[in-house]
Design brief:
Elements (H helix, E strand, L loop, with lengths): L14 H36 L3 H27 L4 H27 L4 H29 L5 H76 L9 H18 L3 E8 L2 H8 L1 H18 L5 E4 L4 E6 L4 H16 L3 H4 L7 E8 L4 H17 L5 E3 L1
Parallel strand pairs: 4-5
Antiparallel strand pairs: 1-3, 1-4, 2-3
Length: 383
């Protein structure tokens, strides 16, 4: 028989594995899509808020309001004590400090991601106040030299009212934007929580799919290298060891042995007792062989009723002895053991040596098997 017989090769059924592969690809694509949507949502809704420090801006506005109140108190003191040097000093300080606060508020408003249309009018009013305070500094110099403070007091009162109104509007604007920021962040938090939950579900699904894929892969490997009926390795399984055993034999100088076995008149058994009976005999036959071979030997079913044993570190005497034990073991099987009202014998071909190519060793064993059949069956021949 030839080394390769396609009739006994079981094709690998990869449809299920491919299906799981598509599921994994879809899962990863879904995960990437969800992450991309989350990033887009974040950029769209939160960019203008994440760059804003509304707490700091509120502090600037509140501090400026307090100075506006103190400026009003200083104006009242000037009305009561027009020539008090301490009042002049306080007013000079406020006329210098309040414009500094206006510059600070202007910078903070522009540094935060607020819409310019929301604070443009307030900022313009503050800039106008800043210019008028520059004029008041000149007026204060005249009052110190003895001029009347009435015009100064009137203009100061107008400025203080403008500051109070503007700061109040800015405080309301900042609090409103801060509230919006909190709402957006809460929504983002919920979105991220849902996203994390979905990612966890997806990861669990992927892990389950990977586990199933591993099981399917193992099953495919089993189907591709093992015979389902006898549970022995098949021709593919044999060939996976053959070349490495040949190389090992070449390196070590130890002989490699091969026994080919064929059940005699097996077609007659199938035709007479039916294929279920033939399958039963094959199972019992395989069990009998497994009881006799070593753990390091490779036992395989390589055809319908053809089996083989590949034996590392085995010379011709050892191979022949094992072949005879196997032949005797099979011929001694009773009808009760076989489960069929018949007896079974087999023919065996033995070949040993240091072949560098497995098919050469196989060809010699196959030739010996043919000789055993020609010479009457139920015998061992050496090739």
């Amino acid at each position: 028989m030839g080394l390769v017989d396609s009739r006994y090769h079981r094709p690998m059924k990869l449809g299920t594995v491919k299906s799981i592969g598509w599921q994994l690809g879809l899962g990863f694509t879904l995960l990437a899509g969800i992450c991309a949507m989350a990033v887009a949502l974040y950029n769209f809704h939160a960019r203008q808020y994440m760059g804003s420090d509304y707490t700091s801006l509120v502090a600037v506005v509140v501090r400026s309001q307090s100075h506006a109140v103190m400026f009003r108190n200083a104006l009242e003191d000037l009305r009561k004590r027009p020539g008090d040097p301490d009042v002049f000093s306080r007013l000079e300080n406020f006329l210098w400090r309040i414009p500094q606060h206006i510059d600070g508020i202007s910078f903070s408003l522009q540094a935060n991601q607020l819409s310019k249309s929301d604070y443009h009018a307030s900022l313009a009013r503050l800039q106008d106040v800043k210019e008028r305070m520059s004029e008041m500094r000149q007026q204060l110099d005249g009052i110190i030299l003895g001029a009347s403070p009435e015009k100064f007091l009137h203009q100061g009162q107008v400025i203080e009212n403008d500051l109070a109104l503007t700061y109040s509007m800015l405080e309301e604007l900042v609090h409103s934007e801060a509230a919006k920021q909190r709402i957006v962040m809460e929504r983002l938090g919920r979105t991220i929580s849902v996203l994390i939950f979905m990612i966890l579900l997806l990861i669990v699904g992927l892990l389950i799919s990977l586990f199933k894929l591993k099981r399917k892969h193992h099953k495919v490997m089993q189907l591709s290298q093992f015979d389902e009926l006898t549970k022995l390795g098949n021709r593919r399984y044999l060939l996976s060891f053959a070349e490495s055993f040949c190389k090992q034999s070449q390196r070590s100088g130890c002989s490699l042995g091969l026994i080919l076995m064929d059940i005699d008149h097996f077609k007659y058994v199938n035709d007479t007792f039916g294929h279920p009976a033939g399958d039963q005999i094959l199972r019992v036959f395989a069990g009998a062989l497994k009881d006799e071979v070593r753990e390091i030997d490779v036992l395989a079913r390589i055809g319908g009723e053809e089996f083989c044993v590949l034996m590392p570190d085995t010379d011709v005497d050892g191979a022949v002895k094992l072949a005879e034990r196997l032949r005797q073991k099979v011929s001694d099987l009773t009808q009760q053991q076989l489960g069929v009202a018949t007896s079974v014998t087999m023919s065996l071909g033995v070949a040993t040596g240091h072949e560098a190519i497995f098919k050469h060793l196989y060809a010699r064993a196959d030739k010996a098997l043919y000789q055993a059949k020609t010479n009457g069956r139920n015998r061992v021949e050496i090739g």
